[in-house]
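Section 3.1 - Work completed
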Amino acid sequence: MRLTAVIPVYNEANNIASMLDSLLNQRLTTSTLVEAVVVSSGSTDSTPDIVRAKSAADPRVRLLTQDVRLGKAAALNAYLRERDPTCDLILISSGDVLLQPGFLDLLVRAFDDPKVGMCGGRPVPTNPRDGLVGRMVHFMWDLHHEIGLDEPKLGEAVAVRASLIAELPRESPVDEASIEAQIASHGYRLHYVPEAVLANRGPSNLRDFVKQRRRIAAGHYWLRETTGYEVSTLNVGRVVRRALKYPTFTNPVTDFAYVAAAGLEGVSRLLGYFDLKRGHSHAIWSIAESAHDTVAGDDQAADQPKTANG
């Protein structure tokens, strides 16, 4: 299969070089990476210069620039309007993740099933598993993994059959979920590949935790209202059933973090719902700065994923 990658970014000078290295160094057995297109949307830092340097060293890297920040959906659309029509698969990735060895090959193999239209791996935060917010972040990521095993909710880095993806609504604040809706409308299914791990960075303070969760909730409510499609993590009953497996009843510090995460998730969803009803758009979202820190080089970058059962 012929594979192309698109990476929409805004001010990712701290991460884009490492992200591209993690992509370009993937060993592929059943596909060929044709190009990696970085769409820099209104970046005001050195992101474009770093990408140009990477392009000079590897001709597979290409830079598209938007002078004004228009949002991730608009950045993806800029790529889709000039994509390589010969490519079978498109990888869509954030610019602040690190694809672990074997990640891309595992995703490509999922498309051996002709019914699979989109697949994604398992994001694992590089935040240390200590402190209140660190425990909350890992709880949320682990919980999403548990839910994904039953009904996939894909994000951070996903692969999709190129023939199935069309331009996204520019007002979409949740690009991967909007693509999920497109794939479902074509009658194809989503596939979660938990063995395909990518490292990313979660918020490290409560303010950014709520900011990020609020924006995501508002986007999911917007998607449900405009298309009728509901991501798996929006189902409260499903989330609660999985979350109830996590309390230890022996470690009060950890259990308090779980309760705090659940409470703030509820608050964030309520705020996101209010944002939707008052017409506040998150298509160009306010950056949660602590989740935008350098993802490479953290002592916890290789932290092993955990589940409710450890």
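Second construct:
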Amino acid sequence: MSEGAAARRPSHAPPLLGIGQVLARLQPEFPELTPSKLRFLEEQGLVTPARTAAGYRKFSPADIERITVVLSMQRDHYLPLKVIRAHLEEIDAGRTPALPGVVDATAFRATAARYSREDLIRETGAGAALLDDAISASLIRPAEVYGQETKDLLTALAALRASGIEPRHLRGLRAAAERQTELVERAIAPERRSDPAGRARSAERARELGDRLAVVHAAVIRDLLDRRSH
């Protein structure tokens, strides 16, 4: 959008936001969001901000909502961008596709909820002591606001505690995850060296590899349990 076009916007129209304003609005919920991540989302066709005559990006409220949906689908459902893009293209075409990996859109909207510490404890019934133990064991990072993933994790920890498995018993999981993270970092290092500016692209690739490792980890545990039950 040119500066002249921006000047002709109706006075009641919501103002367009620059990258800095978008980050200020969304980073409290999505701390990993950076200018390069926003540019990467645009490069991938997930958001199309307007441009001033000088080339500056300007984001509308609809753009902000779209970015929020993309980041939520990544964080809460571990979906790769290509799957998210296909889903949004279906919506843009006027269709109402089921959310990939989720039973229905209502379930997705529920996962967009944010929980304070008090909300998290109340919703999970886990108790403040368990949350503190999980934080002490580095299984949960302390935060002012928590997402659905943390709620699911704390619910699982509560069920494990009921069977005598405490957060302190799971410290090895954190250590194993750190080793696997190092594997991912080494795997994507050549990509980062060849494209130093593509940090968002590297982060997406790392997320995909992490998802693959999670599948392998779950399969190995199931196999070991099956072997020991025979």
